[in-house]
Amino acid sequence: MTTTALHDPKDPHNEAVAAFYVQASGGLSTLYAPVLSLTTGDTERPGLPAYIQGLRFITIEPFDIAAALTATELLHTGHPWAAVHAIHAAPAPRC
Question: The pTM is what?
Protein backbone atom coordinates (compact mmCIF):
# COMPACT_ATOMS: atom_id res chain seq x y z
CA MET A 1 0.00 0.00 0.00
CA THR A 2 1.41 3.35 -1.04
CA THR A 3 0.35 5.25 2.05
CA THR A 4 2.02 2.76 4.37
CA ALA A 5 5.23 3.10 2.33
CA LEU A 6 5.08 6.87 2.79
CA HIS A 7 4.38 6.43 6.50
CA ASP A 8 7.33 4.09 7.11
CA PRO A 9 10.82 5.36 6.17
CA LYS A 10 12.13 1.77 6.41
CA ASP A 11 9.65 0.51 3.80
CA PRO A 12 11.50 -0.51 0.62
CA HIS A 13 9.12 1.64 -1.46
CA ASN A 14 9.36 4.74 0.73
CA GLU A 15 11.88 6.53 -1.47
CA ALA A 16 9.81 6.11 -4.64
CA VAL A 17 6.59 7.19 -2.94
CA ALA A 18 8.35 10.16 -1.34
CA ALA A 19 9.49 11.22 -4.81
CA PHE A 20 5.85 11.24 -5.97
CA TYR A 21 4.98 13.35 -2.94
CA VAL A 22 7.74 15.84 -3.84
CA GLN A 23 6.34 16.05 -7.38
CA ALA A 24 2.87 16.71 -5.97
CA SER A 25 4.25 19.44 -3.72
CA GLY A 26 5.63 21.14 -6.82
CA GLY A 27 2.29 20.93 -8.62
CA LEU A 28 3.55 18.30 -11.07
CA SER A 29 1.11 15.59 -10.01
CA THR A 30 -1.74 14.86 -7.64
CA LEU A 31 -1.76 12.12 -5.03
CA TYR A 32 -5.01 10.58 -3.84
CA ALA A 33 -5.55 8.52 -0.70
CA PRO A 34 -8.92 6.77 -0.49
CA VAL A 35 -10.21 6.98 3.06
CA LEU A 36 -11.18 3.32 2.85
CA SER A 37 -7.52 2.42 2.20
CA LEU A 38 -6.42 4.53 5.13
CA THR A 39 -8.89 2.79 7.38
CA THR A 40 -7.62 -0.61 6.29
CA GLY A 41 -4.00 0.54 6.52
CA ASP A 42 -4.49 1.61 10.11
CA THR A 43 -4.82 -2.05 11.08
CA GLU A 44 -1.19 -2.56 10.01
CA ARG A 45 0.12 0.90 10.85
CA PRO A 46 -1.80 2.53 13.70
CA GLY A 47 -1.93 6.28 13.21
CA LEU A 48 -1.73 6.09 9.41
CA PRO A 49 -4.92 8.10 8.69
CA ALA A 50 -3.86 10.95 11.00
CA TYR A 51 -0.38 10.99 9.47
CA ILE A 52 -1.69 11.14 5.89
CA GLN A 53 -4.31 13.74 6.83
CA GLY A 54 -1.48 15.96 8.04
CA LEU A 55 0.27 15.94 4.65
CA ARG A 56 -0.61 18.99 2.55
CA PHE A 57 -0.24 17.50 -0.91
CA ILE A 58 -2.45 14.44 -0.66
CA THR A 59 -6.12 14.59 -1.56
CA ILE A 60 -8.29 12.35 0.61
CA GLU A 61 -10.98 10.60 -1.39
CA PRO A 62 -14.05 10.17 0.85
CA PHE A 63 -16.04 7.00 1.20
CA ASP A 64 -19.45 8.60 1.24
CA ILE A 65 -22.90 7.10 0.86
CA ALA A 66 -22.68 7.17 -2.95
CA ALA A 67 -19.43 5.19 -2.79
CA ALA A 68 -20.98 2.80 -0.27
CA LEU A 69 -23.98 2.18 -2.52
CA THR A 70 -21.75 1.52 -5.52
CA ALA A 71 -19.46 -0.74 -3.48
CA THR A 72 -22.30 -2.81 -2.06
CA GLU A 73 -23.90 -3.16 -5.50
CA LEU A 74 -20.61 -4.41 -6.95
CA LEU A 75 -20.09 -6.80 -4.02
CA HIS A 76 -23.64 -8.18 -4.34
CA THR A 77 -23.14 -8.82 -8.06
CA GLY A 78 -20.10 -10.95 -7.35
CA HIS A 79 -17.17 -8.57 -7.77
CA PRO A 80 -14.33 -9.32 -5.35
CA TRP A 81 -13.50 -6.84 -2.61
CA ALA A 82 -10.13 -6.09 -4.27
CA ALA A 83 -11.91 -4.91 -7.44
CA VAL A 84 -14.35 -2.80 -5.44
CA HIS A 85 -11.45 -1.22 -3.57
CA ALA A 86 -9.62 -0.47 -6.82
CA ILE A 87 -12.71 1.16 -8.28
CA HIS A 88 -13.06 3.36 -5.19
CA ALA A 89 -9.34 4.19 -5.26
CA ALA A 90 -9.52 5.50 -8.84
CA PRO A 91 -10.41 9.19 -8.60
CA ALA A 92 -13.33 10.51 -10.58
CA PRO A 93 -12.39 12.63 -13.58
CA ARG A 94 -12.07 16.29 -12.68
CA CYS A 95 -13.58 18.87 -15.02
Answer: 0.67
Q: Which residues of 12-25 are buried (b: 16+ CB within 10 A; e: fewer)?
A: eeeeebeebbeebe
- CA dihedral (85, 80, 64, 4) in degrees, to 10, reads -30
Residue from 85, 81, 72, 3 nearest 38 by CA: 3
Instruction: Give me the tens of pLDDT residue by residue for the chain, a chain 95 residues long.
Output: 678 888 888 989 889 989 989 999 999 888 888 887 788 788 888 999 999 999 999 988 888 888 888 888 988 999 887 777 777 766 555 54
* Spatial contact of 62 and 35, defined as CB atoms under 8 Å apart: yes
Identify whether the C-beta of residue 16 lies closer than 8 Å to the C-beta of residue 29: no
| Whole-number Å distance between alpha carbons of 76 and 80 | 9
